[in-house]
Amino acid sequence: xxxxxxxxxxxxxGARLWNRERRLSAASGLADALAAQxxxxxxxxxxxxxxxxxxxxxxxxxxxxxxxxxxLDAPAEVVRALAAFAGPGxxxxxxxxxAGNCIDAFVREHRARIAAxxxxxxxxxxxxxxxxxxxxxxxxxxxxxKVEARIGWGPNRRGRGxxxxxxxxxxxxxxxxxxxxxxxxxxxxxxxxxxxxxxxxLHQAVPAVEKNGRRIVHGRDFxxxxxxxxxxxxxxxWEQEHLALLLGS
Length: 249
What we know:
alpha/beta, Zincin-like, 8 strands, elongated
């Protein structure tokens, strides 16, 4: 992998504790180690993403790895896990599962290196709806109190001619839920807000999985549990009937 490619990717986040030469050297070493272990040409992209720490895909005979910068000084066993996560061979499912466990453990140990969300403070109490109260009720009723996340209203960014609206988002590694402020209005029933919050909480209860280099967020188990939520169909129907209201906010 060329130095220019590495430099361009690393400068996107600018590793905060290392100088440029050390970053490039570590990234080159990691790329070479991965290439040697998987027996393929590797292109390494280093990022500061807060959700997906590791992913890969093969493009025209080249194995593209995307890894969080915490892996630049990962120990040998974690590098082997990164290689096993994408490497070919027999027993692929079992090896990938074992590698994923090793990678997850490393991420948990180095969670402090993940960039904090832009909004360090979250406001959960809105003008109409109290997200923390909704979260606490859902956690007791549907998750046995096991979901651990901060929740709050997202920034109010108005836009003309909007055709879609992302009602909520869950940031996995930061354990953070943001709900779109368009829902904090008297016209939007608490039932619907709760269904949106439930959906985002479910992302922690049923985490995304990697399959063939793709990150699957809404898998079969996720959809099954979402459909079992008592107000799922009612909330879905309300959204269909009032989509213009939400988009016009």
